[in-house]
């Protein structure tokens, strides 16, 4: 059993896509084992995106994920990391499959609705950041 972190970013929350997005994960057989609405602090966002420190888009990314509430969730299931990454689609909406979350709902590379852990190791690190109670 695999587990992964998903963040439905502020634009997804603002556009009222939480239920749509979660239902896609559930339809793929994944279980939501934790969920919370949170307004991320800059400190939490910087810890989460620490591998991007120094890149030109870092400040824009931090401002984006801290501008309003987001929905953090833990998903579990067989191959959860890979399934979620595929379901979310490419960060570039022009390259995303139309059936993916970003293919259906996104039109921007940075404001791209969702974050998903890219490996089991990163998932565990990210889950500790967003769900320290676990």
Structural description of this entry:
This protein has 7 helices and 4 strands, in the order βααβααβααβα. It has helices at residues 10-14, 18-27, 42-48, 58-66, 80-88, 101-105, 120-130; strands spanning 2-8, 31-38, 70-77, 114-116. The protein has a 4-stranded antiparallel β-sheet with strand order 2-3-1-4.
Helix content: 40-55%
What's the number of helices? 7
Number of strands: 4
- Helices and strands, in N-to-C order? EHHEHHEHHEH
Strand and helix layout:
Elements: E1 2-8, H1 10-14, H2 18-27, E2 31-38, H3 42-48, H4 58-66, E3 70-77, H5 80-88, H6 101-105, E4 114-116, H7 120-130
Antiparallel strand pairs: 1-3, 1-4, 2-3
Question: What attributes does this structure have?
Answer:
134 residues, alpha+beta, four-stranded antiparallel beta sheet, 7 helices
Quick take:
The protein is of the alpha+beta class. It has helices spanning 10-14, 18-27, 42-48, 58-66, 80-88, 101-105, 120-130; strands at residues 2-8, 31-38, 70-77, 114-116. The longest helix is centred in the last third of the chain and has 11 residues, at 120-130.
